Amino acid sequence: MSEVLNCIDAGSENCPCFLAVTGDCLTCSRLQGKDFCDCHWRGVCIYNEFIQGNCNVNNPRKDFEADIVKTKFYKDDLVVFVLNVGKGFALKASIPGTYLFIKGRGSNHFYDVPISVMRSDIEKGQVHLAIKIISSKTKALLLEKEKFVVRGPYRNGIQGISQIIRNKAPNQRVLIVAKGIGIAPGILTSKFLNHKRIVDITIDTEKISKDLISDYLESDSTHPSDGNIEEGIVRYVSLSEQSSMEVIESLMQKNRYDSVIILTSDYYTESIVKLAKRTLPEADLAISNNFHLCCGEGLCGSCSFDLAGGNTIKMCKCQLTGDEVFRYNPTT
After folding, report:
1. What fold, for 158-290?
2. Are 185 and 96 contacting, i.e. CB atoms less than 8 angstroms apart?
């Protein structure tokens, strides 16, 4: 892998960040303590921004309270919250891979939990969050009835998505494969890409609800039961069955997708990535960021691992290609 690490926040309104203060900037060699510049960054100089900003963090993300305007249960352990966050925040949260940290007002900071944005309604200034109730943090969210404490938006929920967004070639075809709650970032990604691309979605509905999918994806895009392969539609599969992999391979062979976005657990990601690389060797790959995300700022180290050569990858900040993540993620 290249020694150049791409930081998802570089050049954004949140740059320079806390890592610049401690000399751990992922992009700027001067802020890493070197006496020369070899950062390969082509945007506004991060070092200059930091010095001229009196060596302070630029626009640090802060907690704020957001009204809960709607709560809908699809299962006993699957709930969607709609939050009022304002139009400006909703606009920033409309980018694929966006997630927020949320908690109840009465909970301490240990209860912050990262949740992918499923829909961003810019006109209403609202975001929709689908949450699978699993353990202490998510169970605590059910105790809050009026407002959540929100921090964000954070951008790195999907590794490799930046490369796909930047690809402006006409008539691009995209395949999204999602399992379970992975459909939440899949819905946001589909909405964002659908304007200029043909997007097919293949979903394993285990542990979620088809009602949620019908509420958030166009009902007329549902795949007919006869098995015909069509464009821009939703298909339901069971990834635990070999026949589903055969269906996905058939789709890849027929439609020759330019990009494949895989939003599943690591177990299924490995199989689908291998299938995509064999069937569509030129396609851009993106995969869900399944690392443990606890702070989102690259400070706590829970999402880090070291590469040969000494580089430390902070997966809440580093935006790699899907292929790079697959090759260097020790869990795959």
Report:
1. Rossmann fold (3.40.50)
2. yes
Amino acid letter at 211?
A: D
* 64-154: CATH superfamily: Translation factors (2.40.30.10)
Q: d(Cα 183, Cα 329) in Å, to the nearest integer?
A: 22
Domain with CATH 2.40.30.10 in the chain: 64-154
- Is 0.85 surpassed by the pTM of this model? yes
For residue range 95-139, list pLDDT tens digits in order: 999 999 999 999 998 999 999 999 999 999 999 999 999 999 999
Q: Report in angstroms the alpha-carbon separations of 276 from 97, 126, 150, 250, 252.
A: 21, 35, 36, 11, 8
- Where in the chain are all domains bearing CATH 3.40.50.720? 158-290
Among 301, 291, 274, 281, CA closest to 330:
291
Q: What is the pLDDT of residues 205-215, one digit of tens each?
A: 888 999 999 99
CA proximity to 61, closest of 105, 101, 27: 101
